[in-house]
Amino acid sequence: GTALLATLSQKSKKSEAAELDIPSWTREPGAPILKKAYGAPSSFEKDVVRRTWTKMRGGQGSTLTPLASLRGIITPGGLHFERHHAGVPDIDPAQHSLVVHGLVSQPMRFSLDDLHRLPSVSRICFIECSGNTGTEWTKATRADVQSTHGLLSCSEWTGVPLSYILGETGMEADARWVLAEGADGAAMSRSIPLKKALDDVIVAYAQNGEALRPEQGYPLRLICPGYEGNMNIKWLRRLKLGQYPFYTREETSKYTDLMPDGKARQFSFTMGVKSVIVRPSGGMKLTSPGLQEINGLAWSGHGKITKVYVSTDGGKTWIAARLDGLILDKCLTRFTLPWVWNGQKAILQSKAYDEAGNFQETRQILHARYGDNLYYHNNGIQSWLVSETGDITNVFI
Amino acid sequence: GTALLATLSQKSKKSEAAELDIPSWTREPGAPILKKAYGAPSSFEKDVVRRTWTKMRGGQGSTLTPLASLRGIITPGGLHFERHHAGVPDIDPAQHSLVVHGLVSQPMRFSLDDLHRLPSVSRICFIECSGNTGTEWTKATRADVQSTHGLLSCSEWTGVPLSYILGETGMEADARWVLAEGADGAAMSRSIPLKKALDDVIVAYAQNGEALRPEQGYPLRLICPGYEGNMNIKWLRRLKLGQYPFYTREETSKYTDLMPDGKARQFSFTMGVKSVIVRPSGGMKLTSPGLQEINGLAWSGHGKITKVYVSTDGGKTWIAARLDGLILDKCLTRFTLPWVWNGQKAILQSKAYDEAGNFQETRQILHARYGDNLYYHNNGIQSWLVSETGDITNVFI
Amino acid sequence: SPCPGEPISEDSISPWNIDISRNGPLPQGNGTPLIGKNIYLEKCAACHGASGDGFMDIYPALRGGIGSLATKTPLRTVGSFWPSPESVLDYVRRAMPLNAPQSLNADDLYSVVSYLLYINNIIPQDFPLNEKTISSVKMPNRNGFIDTGEENGKITFPYKEVQDRLGNCFRKK
Amino acid sequence: SPCPGEPISEDSISPWNIDISRNGPLPQGNGTPLIGKNIYLEKCAACHGASGDGFMDIYPALRGGIGSLATKTPLRTVGSFWPSPESVLDYVRRAMPLNAPQSLNADDLYSVVSYLLYINNIIPQDFPLNEKTISSVKMPNRNGFIDTGEENGKITFPYKEVQDRLGNCFRKK
Ligand code: HEC
Ligand code: HEC
Ligand SMILES: [Ca+2]
Ligand SMILES: [Ca+2]
Ligand SMILES: [Ca+2]
Ligand SMILES: [Ca+2]
Ligand SMILES: [Ca+2]
Ligand SMILES: [Ca+2]
Ligand SMILES: [Co+2]
Ligand SMILES: [Co+2]
Predict the structure, then answer these.
(1) Domain ranges of chain B
(2) pLDDT score, position D173
(3) How far, CA to CA in Å, does C102 sit from each of A25, A28, B99, C106, C117?
(4) Most C CBs within 10 Å: which of A28, A33, A339, as the mutation test of the C interface?
(5) How many beta-carbon pairs below 8 A join chains B and C?
(6) Which of C56, C168, D54, D56 is the one with CA 20 to 30 A from B268?
(7) Contact residues on chain A for B10, CB-CB shorter than 8 A
(8) Beta-carbon count within 10 A of C160 CB
(9) Interface predicted TM-score (ipTM) over 0.85
């Protein structure tokens, strides 16, 4: 049997005159309750998993979310993309704490229980690695949307606003930056502007209702809504206030954006407005002409999505898609558009707009503007070519 | 180590003068990427699982969501409560279809692929069994909130509005009810008013982004937002339009509400406005006086939550709680309130209001109004007694 | 096909079209409590007990409780609570026996349900239960239900929305 | 305690206080490329290669690429790209060697980083790298970064909200 959400699979043949079968599962009782005290997907969905392009090197690498198989805006915890620099630590929460120090009035240490006693907030927002679609910067390289755009997920995060924690420690007047540091083997560290820290940053202990998943930073993660993925420090152990940025490796050697003149843009934090059609998308096959749903995701680190336009002719004409369900700040937004495929060649594209007035440009235009070497922060328009046979491939336009 | 979200556990002792340890997980690489292609919670969260009070009888019974350990409004798929009448069928989606017939212009059969081609919608809403808190109708029986209120979960559901499907089949003018039937061994069936069916009912194929979990009806489930859990027919195989209700067992022998005169209220569909404090709650222990967060859930089958009041003195005085995050139609809504526990006896209660003008009453008042035998649709106020030692128990007020 | 879904005939659907209700057509068949008793003992008694009194909180009682509904210990059974015999036929056909649902043929179904009615003193032991006689069965609690009226109100079809999204696949009513 | 969290002294934090940056205090220690070479060969070369040229796409090159940044094949290394030696000290101290992070003492750290600078022709092989001399190290790409300015703007503390929710646990600035 084929996975329900894995592909636009071949329709099963039906002989319309024959009587319906009564399948075995209707004629006998199913599995007992509590067979799984913590449940799992159907075995028929076994192909809906994270995948990787990382050449083997232990804990250093990334895995990709199977976007084509997902619906709505929530990414299930088990399918959230991974990016680790020294693997996934197995942290005992009773042995873990968060230290806040530097330019504060009183350095403090918070156990998990302490954080649970503080006022909490929940919000849904996306996390996108700023290397997402980096491989597609100058040409179409990968076949499917998991491989091109899979460093992208979205969860409901719960925790304590960093401003409340800094309300308890107090701050010195000259504080401008916060160093956030993980307890993993990479002691992953980034400098967060204090302006952002006091705006909407959360010290999160829960994701989609439950404790953070180990791959997402159990037991504590910094959530910096709209900022590049790497800044959402996992396995968070330390926050240090300072007057200057800390110039860590991940904001000098990495996650800086190389321009044609050899200079690199530094402290490029916010993920640009972006969208992608996930169904139909690369690697799928349309099996018959007729009514389809074009379905995709749009997001922006600058705020809410305001509009998404879809083209089926490679950008010649555009139609406004319907924004489905919740339209939230710095959050995945689902768009849909009914489409009648006439069996001819088509090029599917989407173009998103955000409330800050940004919109998505073609890869070609961006590439002309920023040169060959940018890699990070590619928010260009993705194009999928539907052939006359219904086969769908990734094309660079 | 104790689970992060399992309890308000004892604070680990800290000797404040000593230097911080560098734990083993900071000194060595962690587990490699893709160790789990489909992830799972930390082993330290192993106590955060579904539990049951059902005496053993195979697939007939229910399991309870661990509400005290959950945050935000999304219930992770693995922790969604279960209620099955003939166990969990293991359905091959390629062998499954939905038949729509009866008072329609053209009976039709839809494969999963057909449904994926139709326009989709996503929404977040709760499902509550109308037997939830039934055990607490006339006295306080169970110790913790998982056991009292755990037949309650909330997910993002994605699928095709039933009105679109009926738009394809057409409808006869005298149609008034829809029979919905499952493919499980109970062929679970309920009559849905056509008014509701055309309003906001969804034929769902996805839950929290991924395919429905088997326990939630994989591959198809009817979602009737705000209606009692049992009407959200799982493993959906058939919809039949008719002029009259079908008087199935689940709307005659069960899920009808017995009044003091021996008559039973029938077709009581909508779940009333309700709320419960989940932290602190029964079975937990407060270990020191001082700042705490009171944190709970409110919901109503009639629409949005408008207000939640919290009392710490058993209902003498009430304080407005903060509604956290999203406030959605027929959806769990999180409320929070900072509270300084002074080390004295306290009785914690919450009282929710909805946009339709309903509010929650004490169990005592409801019990006086409806008599001893109602059981279903208990939306009374829950009371937790905090003793001077910090121990918390369930009390009936 | 240009529109998702395939037309199907009511004939093809008949193996799934199992619902039985007081307002719908009934299966053709016939049975008496005398015949039903054997089926009951063979296929039901192991769970529901030889006399139909159920087993603890695990397997429900199928008899008794008449007159108990307004007391402190109401017992809801086929005899005391179910409002119509069609609902019993419907439920037993779709769900019982628990270990082999949808395995009873129409005669066996009428027989075993007539036996349940008999042990509740609703019909005599030689009563032939079938699609004709069923209307004469008077369930003790047939007037025991009060409709909440939640289902009433205007039925509105979202015409524009469905038209917009289904296009040519929209079948006007 | 009435307020969540415990005061802690900067002294107690010192084992975690490992960041090194151009604006902060430096660890006390000293090393030269000559000493660093041995540490490199023992603890780093297995992955990054005997000459520091890395291994395929798997282990990054630690030397070379100077002058390549504006070409079609930019090579970003400690030599060609990193703007300041403090960042190298910081990263190697926290994250390298990959299999035993935070295992280098201050002298070894200065030594092995001085060796990386040496193989990039930034300092001579007998250069004593320490908290005093580091300011004289001139990284080739020290002026290679353009600040986007995203971090600029007014810093606003949500005073009322925090006061409301922390009550007496709020420490006025
Ligand atoms: C293997 C055990 C088992 C067998 C065999 C079995 N039943 Fe049941 N029966 C149950 C259980 C358990 C329930 C409750 C199911 C539920 O609540 O979903 C039930 C419920 C019922 C009910 C509904 C009672 C009520 O008032 O709601 C009827 C009627 C019934 N059974 C009739 C039968 C008949 C007739 C047979 C034989 C043809 C039969 N059962 C065989 C276990 C069994
Ligand atoms: C077991 C393999 C291994 C060993 C041993 C190792 N490294 Fe690394 N090193 C890596 C990997 C893999 C990376 C890339 C890490 C990443 O991107 O997160 C890296 C990255 C680096 C970088 C950053 C390169 C850049 O330009 O961003 C430096 C500097 C470095 N290592 C220095 C060292 C030094 C010095 C040692 C020995 C003291 C060492 N490494 C030992 C595997 C290793
Ligand atoms: Ca960046
Ligand atoms: Ca009801
Ligand atoms: Ca068709
Ligand atoms: Ca009515
Ligand atoms: Ca304290
Ligand atoms: Ca600046
Ligand atoms: Co990243
Ligand atoms: Co229920």
Answers:
(1) 93-265, 274-395
(2) 61
(3) 11, 9, 18, 10, 20
(4) A28
(5) 203
(6) C56
(7) 113
(8) 8
(9) yes
